[in-house]
Amino acid sequence: MEVYCGAHKPCPYGVGISNPGYWGMNIEQGKRYKVVYHVKSERKFDFQLSFTGVDVIKVASSRRHVYGDGKWKRVETIVEAKTTNHYSSLQITTTREGSYLLDQVSVMPLDTYMGHGFRNDLFQMVADLKPKFLRFPGGCYVEGNYLRNRFQWKDTIGPWEERPGHLGDVWNYWSDDGIGFFEYLLLAEDLGALPIWVFNAGFGLNDEIDTSSIESYVQDALDGIEFARGSPTSQWGSVRAAMGHPTPFDLRYVAVGNENCWQTYFNYQGNYLKFYEAIKAAYPDIQIISNCDASRKPLNHPADLFDFHTYPSSNDMFSLFTKFDNTSRSGPKAFVSEYAVKSDAANGNLLAAVAEAAFLIGLEKNSDIVEMVSYAPLFLNINDKRWIPDAIVFDSYQVYGTPSYWVQKLFIESSGATFIDSTLSTTSSNKLAASVIIWQDSSDKKNYLRIKAVNFGAAAESLDIDLSGLDSNVQQYGSTITVLTSTNVMDENSFLEPKKVVPQTSPLEIDDKHLIVLLPSYSVISLDFLI
């Protein structure tokens, strides 16, 4: 920043820089924010901080005046907002003529989740899903268009200002890696979820490492595992401990690459075996996930799980309800780590959500072979629609869940539940899917029989339920019915109508073990019978 004042000493007004962050900074009345920047100059400097459209007062600062010596100085200031602007910009100005270098500028609210930097409302949206695992740091983001732009975990740890950052060239944005390997592990821990680390296996989208030269990548993966779960006295475990987390993270799963077992790549099998052998030798308990699809034919290499990704149309997603019915039970289990309706989902509509519910019922029915499933992608900033749809949509201060998000909430209790054999008989429709589980409410220890049913057809259907085969008695009161549907199959949620398409729950009185329930067109229902 070159500041010229002409004949005036000092300048008659502040000269400087302005930045809106990610499409506007949410500065709210009564809240405090930490502003950090690093500056280097040969002369004394004195900067003023302000936010567009907001009045703030300085609460604390690490320094008022800084004497220039040509060395980087870190300046930290705490400000409190007296007014609100959801789309503010930070301004750093000075009236002193001179040449200044600024780098690593940040504004963060002080009230992040547990002080770990995660926005409270976004964190809560994920926590409400009660996730059992978090797969990170992404898919193609792991690889890069070219390996030089891959996610390199060692460059994403340590002090934020010392992280070099990298170009996410697949999605064409720069990441300063402020959320890096450590922060992802921390996020999983805060969510009470197991971390699943996807590491680079020697592949970019347009280049790859020959198996004969893969050793440094293998060692990098071993170092990453040691960072996550090694002793605080080990080489990389000590780095984690120095970052404030001496206790090892509970890393039990790793994935060798992302979508690399394709015909366009030549070295996946060889590279995979190098990683598998080295990791199993050092950490025999770690579950290793292969990119190769074993849903139709067995793998030709050892694995604990295999990866399955799908982004079909809604019709094709519904037909995947039976995808794993004939998968071999003698091989590794399936990890459906990326799924979503893509082509006709628009920004995330009811049509997509209903089809995905049928797919999830199919996975539930095949849970002896399908161990884990996760929707992808998780988040979308509404200002940057490079990939739609996504489960959770946000801007600087608002957030809502798409219908697909709400479908996932209907499957929370499936984890750890008991699957019950049932039969769905129909002569009128091939657009129905259903499953039955027994689950226990952790809050009151009551047991429920849950019937989930999907109607992917344009006509309403009557579901005739016969519970006479149950060993347990169904209570007359305490049961509920939850319905997810809308007046138009293309309906979406939005900031203006965040709950336009959400599940609606009402009490259900049971008179006997036989009842008839109406399934609206394009709907998902969940019946919980207290037993």
From TrEMBL:
EC numbers: 3.2.1.55
SMART domains the record matches: Alpha-L-AF_C
Biological processes annotated in GO: L-arabinose metabolic process
Reaction catalyzed: Hydrolysis of terminal non-reducing alpha-L-arabinofuranoside residues in alpha-L-arabinosides
Record-linked SUPFAM superfamilies: (Trans)glycosidases, Glycosyl hydrolase domain
InterPro entries: Alpha-L-AF_C, ASD1_cat, GH, Glyco_hydro_b, Glycosyl_Hydrolase_51
Gene3D superfamilies attached to this UniProt entry: Galactose-binding domain-like, Glycosidases, Golgi alpha-mannosidase II
Single Gene Ontology MF annotation: alpha-L-arabinofuranosidase activity
Domain Alpha-L-arabinofuranosidase C-terminal: residue ranges: 337-523
Entry keyword set: Glycosidase, Hydrolase, Signal
Top-level lineage group: Eukaryota
Family in the record: Belongs to the glycosyl hydrolase 51 family.
Protein name per the record: non-reducing end alpha-L-arabinofuranosidase
Organism of derivation: Glycine soja
